[in-house]
Hints:
Layout: H1 2-40, H2 45-66, H3 73-85
Helix pairs in contact: 1-2
Amino acid sequence: MANNKVEIGKSMVLISQIGLSMSTPIIVGVFLGSKLDNYFGTQPLFLILLLFVFSFASFINLFKLAGVKKTNKKNIKSNQDINDKK
């Protein structure tokens, strides 16, 4: 029972971390974009530009949290060789 509560707690922490790491850059991008648009008088330009840039950054953060890593061809081939030997 206690182990189940620990797993639920870890899952909730991970979900919260993913939510914050996705939403924070987008909110910052919208805020900075609107401030720059008001300063320079270019209404939707910086808002849209920074929204895309910071959205891309939030997805990079998501992949880092999820543990998605690039694999090279040597790594894939060696993994296939190991599986073939089994």
